[in-house]
Amino acid sequence: MTSINQKSIIVIFGATGDLANRKLYPSIYRLFRKGKLSENFSVVGVARRPLTNEEFRNNVKKSIHQYEHDEIEYDQFAEHFHYIPFDVTDLAHYQELNDLLSQLDEKHRTEGNRIFYLAMAPEFFGTIAANLKSEGLTDTSGWTRLVIEKPFGHNLESAQVLNDQIRHSFREEQIYRIDHYLGKEMVQNIEVIRFANAIFESLWNNQFIANIQITSSETLGVEDRGKYYESSGALRDMFQNHMLQMMALIAMEPPIKLTPEEIRSEKVKVLRALKPITEDDVNNYFVRGQYDRGIVEEKAVNAYRESNGVEPESNTETFIAAKLLINNFRWAGVPFYIRTGKRMSTKSTEIVIQFKDLPMNLYDDKDKQMHPNLLVIHIQPGEGITLHVNAKKEEHGTTPTPIMLNYQNIENDKMNTTEAYEVLLYDCMCGDSTNFTHWDEVALSWKYVDIIAKAWERKADNFPNYLSGSTGPKDSERLLSRDGFHWWNVTEKGYTER
Ligand code: BG6
User: Fold this and answer.
1) Residue 13 is inside which H or E element, if any?
2) For residue 74, how far is its CA from the centre of ligand 1 (angstroms)?
3) pTM for the full model?
4) Is residue 237 lining ligand 1, measured as CB closer than 6 Å?
5) Closest ligand 1 atom number to CA of residue 342
6) Which of 80, 82, 180, 242 is catalytic?
7) What is the pLDDT of residues 101-159, one digit of tens each?
8) Strands (E) located in 297-437
């Protein structure tokens, strides 16, 4: 982290939306409480709705009500917020915004530093970026940065068009593409676990690792996002970004330095080394699913096709299991199994590294196989790492029994647990782009994903094919059993077992 107390004005497009209320205002508040914002920070919200400053500030206060506070602090915080009703296609509104920013800049001495955060429908990203430049909002004495939410395009072609539009107004180093998984504590910990421990890094290759499993399962369904999800599916919503990013962090070579450029360059190499698959081959490497009715957390729930905004015959996948191969010296022959789905039995994101078995088992008593060593990185809901090893547990005899060396990051104080958006916003203020996705990564991910999307568009599947509250379709098990493996699933205790 370069410095604290960054001075800047944050302009939020989509200021009345769900993301702003649920994630951005609470994150800004937490940074404020922790003293990480300059006294003189300022936030300008813009959105279509005609709100007064007062109404906007009340909304902001509502969005942070869950945190302990006293009224004075709340009011002090809210005073930093300003609002302009805004039509993103109307140039006059940009002029008005620019005037307000200049006034605030002078008042708060924010040195011309501006963050433009686009927390809204992606179809306007290009227009906003162009208008910000043409109306002079990027022309300041300080720095300007553009923060963009996903989805970044729908495929490589549309992502390229969007990128070209944005790049007319902002240079690559000014663009911060958010992947909120990169702000998660344990995702950031992957690098430290790998590169600060001799015992792991020396085993981190195809000589010692049998397979790697990356799972992100959710119990929620599509809720009220049916319309968006119909055009995205799990492939574009989770796989193209969050899942491939986690895989790249697990698989990359040690960077020569921990700078954004060096880390990115290693991640890009992983994505370039992904074994390409053809449309005809997709079924051998990818399994898709869509949830049916079922029981989740003891409640009966509807099928995906019964959700608002979803076609009754929809062929959109809500589950993916994939086998990826990385063609380089370190990973040749090691399958990376990736799985993500909605309406599964548990909400959990974790990475399991399964080590190879010993060449012979001295303790083999015929019916008892030794448990493989596993390193599990728990990303959420619990944060921690578990190393599964074998040891003698009984007083007599030497039968190896699996035991777990467990580290849980126990953080009860809600205010002190940093959340992904808080971390990323702060990084952006400090100009640290390490945990944002560079265009090269976006382009390579789309290139890989487009083939799968095309194959799936060609042929509908037999949906729905898994019950809500289950671990997904049967074929997902077969994807691994063909290779002699199985998924390691989280149990209620937060450990993985067969
Ligand atoms: C978002 C997806 O990017 O990530 C959502 O659009 C998904 O569909 C969410 O629910 C999952 O995030 P998290 O942090 O809850 O795992």
Assistant:
1) strand 9-13
2) 29
3) 0.94
4) yes
5) 10
6) 242
7) 999 999 988 999 999 999 988 889 999 999 999 999 999 999 999 999 988 999 999 99
8) 299-301, 319-324, 336-341, 348-355, 374-380, 384-392, 400-408
